[in-house]
Amino acid sequence: MSPPPKPRHTATSGTAQLRIIGGHWRGRKLSFLPADGLRPTADRVRETLFNWLAPVIRDARCLDLFSGSGALGLEALSRGAAHCAFVDTNGANLRQISKHLDTLDAADRGACHNRTAEEFLNGNREPWDIVFLDPPFERGLAAPALTLLADGHLAPEAMVYLECGRQEMLPAVPDSWDLHRDKTAGNVRYLLYHTP
Hints:
- There is one protein chain.
- A hairpin with a 4-residue loop joins strand 1 and strand 2.
- The chain is α/β, with parallel strands linked by helices.
- Strands 6-5-4-7-8-10-9 form a seven-stranded mixed β-sheet, with helices on both faces.
- The protein has one domain: Rossmann fold.
- It is built from five helices and ten strands; from the N terminus they run E-E-E-H-E-H-E-H-E-H-E-H-E-E-E.
């Protein structure tokens, strides 16, 4: 099986593009700046993920940790999520996401936070319905974020999405979380957990 397609880079501008694949903004193309470790979730993976989330996405409060290009959070908003918080350490990425929210007339439905996942979770106690966890691979960033999420950051019956390298060791999750879906595409493994 071939690896997921890489984002298309525009030679003249040094930017790459992602496409919203479903919902209100379906087909909209948004630009972002390539950066080390930045790897927007491939279209086919997003399509599968949001098919899984279709019963619960409407009016959900979402958290996009390690948001990068914002592909997951923006897709969630397009499909009817009420709000999404975008968290990343790259200020340029967040400024671009903020511009996208303005362009899409959705500035009131998203908020950008220039912090590490741990800093954000330690300073924020809101309960989230859906959390997207897609950190740079092979850096051990998912495990501490998952530990913090389990400590009072999730609404009842929340969903937590985890994306990692196919050969990467999975981080531990609480025993009370049920593995709802587990799939691979190329070099990517993606999982969806249902929490109590």
